[in-house]
Structure formats: C-alpha cells, structure tokens
Description:
single chain; alpha/beta; Rossmann fold; 7-stranded parallel β-sheet; 6-stranded parallel β-sheet; 19 helices; 15 strands; 14% strand; globular
Amino acid sequence: MHIVFFIRRMNDYRAFSTLVNKGLEKGHTVECWHLCDPANKQGGKGYLYPDPANSPFAGKQRRGVSVVAFDSMEKMSEAACSTPGITHIVTLCPPEMIIREQDLERFGGYWCIIMHGPDSFKETGRLVGRTIDPGVKRIFFPYTRHFFDWGIEFSEKFLPVAKTYFSETNTLVIPVGCTMFDERLDAIDPEEVRRKYGIPEGKNIVLYLPYAFGKSKKNRKSRSWQHAFSGIHVQRVARRAFNDGGYRPLSFTERFSKYISELSRILPDRQARTTLFRGWHEPAVIDALRVFCNANDLVLVVKPRRKFDFSEAVHRKADIIIDDDESRQYPSKLQELFSVASLTVALFSTAAIESVHQHVPMLNIESMDDRFLGTEQRHWHPNHEGSFYSFPGVVRNFTIHEFIRRMPAASIRDFAMEPGKRREYMDRFIGDEKPCAAEKFYCELERIMREQAKNG
C-alpha cells in the first residue's frame, strides 16, 4: 500500500504518528504531506504551522517515509490525483472540506478519516448544502461503536448532514480505537520526564489544564460568564505566531481598559455576577488546588494550550507552567507529563481520553459557558453519572463551588482509579489497548484490499 497523510497543522500528528510508524513497520510506502502556506504562520493558530523539520519522522526517508511540503492546498490536491500508485489518503476531516470537487472525483483510492473527538461530527456542518457523492471511497475510523453512536445521536438532533455523511451508503465505518496511543507510551521514562521539566526527583504531579477562555460569540450569557470566571483575571497573553513563544504581560493601561470592558459585560448578567462576587472563578479554583497539592506533597504543573489565555492567579500559584506549541509529538509533552501524574484536573476537556488511557484519574469541573448552556454543546458535555465527564472511579465530576469547597481537605487517595471502572470507560469511549488502534487500522485496510483484489 502507498499511504499519504495530510498534515495541515503540526498537532495532526497526535492522531497520525502511530499510524505512520505502524505503516513503516509493515513495509508500506508512507508519505506525510505538509500544508506549508506561509500565511498560516500568523494568526491565533500560527504556532501550529507544520514545519517539516518538526515532523516526528523528518530525516527518516530511508525507512520508506518521505516528508513533503506544499505551499497551497490546491497543489496538494492536484498532487493527490496526479501521483501514481497512491492507494489511501489519511485525513482528520472529510475530504470534501479540503479537496476541490473535481480532484475528489479524480482520485480513485480510499479516503481514511480518523476520528478526533466530537469535532469529527460537528465539523460536517460545513457540508450542509453540498452533494455527498456515494461513489467516493470513504472509511471513517471512530474510537468505539458507542462513541460513534453518541455522534449519530447528536446528528439526529442537531446536524442531519452528519448522519447522512456517515451512513452506510456514503461511508464505511470501522471502529479501531484511539490512534493517539501505542506501545511507545510504555517506553516513556518517568525520571527522564522529571529531569526534563524540572520536577523534583521522585515527586508526582497534579496536572491542571486551565479553562479555555475563548470569548464565545454564540451565547451572551456564556460570554458574560467566561469573563467572570477567567477573562477579567487575565493579565498576560500568549504569543501565538509561529516560532514566537512565551507570554506578553499587558500594560497597566491595557489591563485597566480590559477590566472596565469586561466588568461592563459581567454586571448585567446575574450568573456572571454570582460567579465573580462569590468567588466561583479560576483564581479560587487554583487556590484550592494549591492547598490540595501542598497537603498531599504533589507538584502543581499547569499545561495550557497556547491558543487560550488564562488567569494570572494560575501563573502565580503553579509550581511549573509548560509552554507547549504542540510541535513535539510522539510522544507529546502532555503524554510525557501523564507518566508522572497522580491526578488531572480540567474543565470539560477531551484530554480525559489521554488521562484515563495513561491510568491517571481525572476531576472534571463543570463550566457554565456555552458548553453547559447551549443545547447542542450540552450533548457533548454531559454530567450525568456514567457519562464521558462523570464516570465514578475514573472521571469524577464537580461543580465549581463544590471543587473550591472540597479540594483543600481532600486526599489523593480519595481519587484513586478503579481498574474495573477504567476498563468500562475504555470499552465505551476509547477502545482496546492491545492490539493498538494502528494495528487494527492496517489489518482492516489489508482486509479490504484483499477483498478488492479477489473481487477484481
């Protein structure tokens, strides 16, 4: 087989690296095509520019993989149709979203769509009004049948095009597990991780993933709450252009202007006022977590995503803040940190998948932004027992004020992961550990190719 991976952002390798590596092990021809449009170096996601030099597989052409740069999607699209011998193209999204219609019809191989959480279903909204050609050979690889059915339930309620796209007529659906994981995670050396990130020898960490402050435009109440919980407390902003890391402190004038602007958004809204004046905000969350870490002899490590700013109190109370432009993959910085973590704390983060897979219990804190207030988003952020964000013995759910009240007196033993419950969670949302998803992926492709050859 001749397989091409479309790399539009560097963190696409989170889902692709295990597949690239397994393809090489099996002797297939593998190429990683990077979309290197210079315009993508700027903007809010410029740091994710897929510089070929940062590929986990750069310099390994001798093993059968080549890393190729294209300066436009049009050129990549043309190459997909004109390069002889390509049997499969692997993407994170439907090819209709990135390939010209005429090129989609010209390519005769298989399009392999790799699941990347709920976005795999939500992003099909961009196909509304488009004709979905049943003659295009598509294969979608979700984590599990349960997760896929959860996505179809979403589409039935809110986005019918997703159900149409993933129907038997248009797309072959084969659950294989989550492709972010393989046996390479077992080779991570915890002591080396501690040395690398400045964690004291022998110490474990609590990993806090800050609230993703994003200035929601969809819901006025959500926007007001976000400012009360996080935005009004931000005093420095991340640098997001390619190869420009770190944080820029806001000047006094900027902070004052921002404070007045955000207060004007908060005060008219009752929920936002309650959040700010009762102290149910991120500074109080990190205060409670700081006390918990001190009492349990744990190091408080914060791993933000660069596209989101976060509260100044988090900067000040953390022992270590990991700046991550996500250029390091296979393993990622997050995966390395999980190897020395005793607990993960986050607000409705799909990092629950990685935390649970790496045997780290997670505490979910319910946020009140549009994920909690919006009907469609509520589907993907459930808090009932047995759901993705509330699974006793694995992922424990807290309201904000419950977390602030209970954490200072809690013991790390209170949150021990229950192996049997973890297995249930894995079966429902993540998939098998062995064989890994990459092994299953190639087994399925090879089976399909054999059947195709047999049937002529």
